[in-house]
Write a structure and sequence with these properties.
By secondary structure, the chain is mostly helical. The protein has helices spanning 15-57, 62-71.
Length: 72
C-alpha cells in the first residue's frame, strides 16, 4: 500500500458511543468558552491597569501603548 491509495473505512458507532461523543464535544466547547471568559476577566483586571501605569510613566498615548506593549 502506498501513500496515494485512499482507505475507505466504514465505522458505525453504537448509540452509546454517539451519546458519549456528544457529551465530550459539549464539555470541550464549554471548557473553551470558560477559558476565553477567564482570559477576558484576567486581562481586564490585571493587564489593563498595568498597561495604564506603563503608558502614564512613559507618556505614551493609550491607543499607541496598547498596540506597542502588546506586540513587544
Amino acid at each position: 500500500m502506498n501513500a496515494t491509495e485512499v482507505i475507505d473505512v466504514d465505522v458505525d458507532f453504537t448509540e452509546e458511543q454517539d451519546s458519549a461523543t456528544f457529551i465530550v464535544w459539549v464539555l470541550l466547547i464549554f471548557c473553551a468558552v470558560v477559558s476565553f471568559w477567564f482570559q477576558a476577566v484576567l486581562t481586564e483586571e490585571r493587564f489593563v491597569p498595568a498597561l495604564n501605569v506603563v503608558s502614564v510613566k512613559f507618556n505614551i498615548p493609550d491607543d499607541v501603548a496598547g498596540a506597542t506593549l502588546m506586540a513587544a
